[in-house]
Every structure is written in C-alpha cells, then in structure tokens.
Design a protein that fits this description.
The structure is a single chain. The N terminus is likely disordered. The chain has 300 residues and is mainly α. The protein contains ten helices and no strands. 66% of the residues lie in helices and 0% in strands. The protein is elongated and about 75 Å long.
Length: 300
C-alpha cells in the first residue's frame, strides 16, 4: 500500500527567510564642481564690488594716488595692484571698469536673448514661408563678419556705451534665433501641443503657455556663455580705441594704455587681462553647468 505522507505546512518565518530582499535604489547625488563654486564666488564678489564701488575704501578711478607705473605692493589698498601711467590706482580702475564690462555684456546678452528668442519661437512654430524668411535673415546676419559690423558701427556712430550695446546686441541675436527655432520646432510636434491645438487653444496660448516654458531653460542656460563672449568683444573694441571713451575705465582700454610699457611694467597689461580671463572663465563654467542641468538634450 502506498503511504501518503502529509507535509507540514511551512512556517511563515521560513517563507520570510526565503523571500528575496527588497531592492533599494540609492539616491544619486550630483557632485558640485569646485570650479563652479569658485566661479560663482568670483562673479558675486565682482558684481558686489562694481555695484558698491562708490562706498568702498578706494580712491576714485581718475585721481592719482602715487607715482606712475608703480608695481603692486601691500603698502595700501590703492597700491595693491600698482598704478597706471598717470599714477591712478589699478585696483580702483579694475573695479570701476567691471561696471562697463558687466553692464554691456549683461544688457546686450539680455536684449539679444529676448529679441532672438521671440523671433526664433515664432519662426519655429509657424514654419513655412515665415520660417524661410527668418532663416534667410539669420543666415545673412551670421555670414556678415561680426568684427567688421562692430567696427563699422563704431566708426559711423559716436563711440559710446549705447553704440557698443547696439552692435553687440545685433551680433548675438542670430545665435538665439537659431537656438530658439530648433527647440521650438522640436516641442511643436509633441503630443501635449497637439492636444492643446485639438482642444481649441489659440496660437498665443500654445506659444507662451505650452512651448515657451520648455524652450526657456536651455536658452537661459546658454546666456552666460554669450555674455562671456560679449565681454571679450567689448574688451577688443576698447583695445582698438572704439569702446568707451576715456577717462571712464574699461578692461580693454586699460590693456591698450599699458601695452607700450609691457616690457618695463607688465602689470599694466596682466592685471586687466587676468580680470577678463577670470570673468570669462567663470561665466563659461556657469553656463556649462546650467546647460548640463537644464538642457534635456544633454541628459541621458
């Protein structure tokens, strides 16, 4: 006879022991680059110094504080970076010159960002003949050498901050048009845009409520890189004598004034050049960080 052996029901504790452990996914934390942190600190310190230059314990930028072409020394704050060919404080002129570079670079970048983004947004959304016309205008502006355009404006119009601002704005508009146009075309074909169109939403609502919020982040992340290029362009014009007229200091103008004494007083060139380098480097680092964080095309 076949014996039937009844198996003892398994203990619940045994079942728990045999169960697979729950998979715990650790939270991935992105490490902040030390270069980005240092860049933010440099830009913040530069902006604060430029904004509150009038209340800082430094001499005015047009008043001599010592003998001409003094080397940097720790004797006083005004002589920390030495003096220029007229005995004026290099530190004071660097701080006051930051106003020109930052204001021109920021305003020209913002104007180009606003104008170019709106034109590219409209062209990428409506397409067809309007987009063809905008693309033709953009290609024509990009084909024209930017330095020739800036030199022509500076020679025709009176050299001033307004002239430089106008020229630099015209230079950066095509770049924002292309970037906004490409992003607008990509987002216009998404499902939520089609759903809004099928529900009867107008063009203005689709443009400014559905597409613009998604296009704005990568465009704004590109802005610091454009500002860095504009600061270099402003310095180049000032070096050529087509920038802000003296005695108002600018970093490019300081390099131009000190180039003749480079062999005997190199600090006249290296001090403003280092200020330009640190500022442009910081803006590029900040722009790359923002692009990596907000541009979805760079994220995996």
């Amino acid at each position: 006879m076949t014996e039937i052996i009844a198996k003892k029901p398994a203990d619940p504790s045994d079942t728990e022991e045999l169960a697979a452990p729950a998979l715990v996914v650790p939270v991935v934390r992105q490490r902040r680059s030390i270069l980005v942190i240092l860049s933010v600190i440099w830009l913040a310190a530069l902006i604060l110094a430029a904004c509150f230059a009038n209340v800082l314990p430094i001499a005015p930028y047009d008043v001599p504080v010592g003998a001409p072409r003094l080397s940097p020394s720790f004797g006083s704050l005004d002589l920390l970076l030495g003096t220029d060919t007229f005995g004026r404080s290099e530190l004071s002129r660097i701080i006051y010159g930051a106003r020109v570079s930052l204001v021109v670079g920021t305003l020209a970048g913002l104007f180009g960002f606003i104008i170019g983004s709106l034109i590219g947004l409209v062209g990428g959304y409506f397409g067809r003949h309007l987009d063809n016309g905008i693309s033709l205008l953009t290609d024509a502006m990009l084909a024209f050498p930017p330095l020739i355009l800036l030199l022509a404006l500076a020679s025709i119009l009176e050299p001033s901050a307004q002239t430089i601002l106008l020229g630099l704005t015209l230079v950066v508009i095509p770049a924002f048009i292309r970037l906004a146009r490409a992003n607008s075309m990509a987002w216009s074909s998404r499902e939520f845009v089609r759903a809004a169109r099928n529900m009867g939403a107008g063009h203005s609502r689709i443009l400014f409520k559905e597409i613009l919020p998604n296009v704005l982040a990568p465009l704004a992340a590109y802005l610091p890189i454009v500002m860095a290029a504009l600061i270099v362009a402003e310095g180049s014009l000032s070096f050529l004598g087509l920038g802000i007229p003296p005695p108002t200091p600018s970093w490019g103008g300081m390099i131009s004034e000190g180039k003749d004494a480079l062999s005997t007083s190199p600090h006249l060139v290296f001090v403003p050049a280092i200020a330009i380098f640190f500022t442009v480097f910081a803006l590029n680092q900040l722009g790359d960080h923002l692009r990596t964080k907000f541009d979805k095309t760079l994220q995996r």
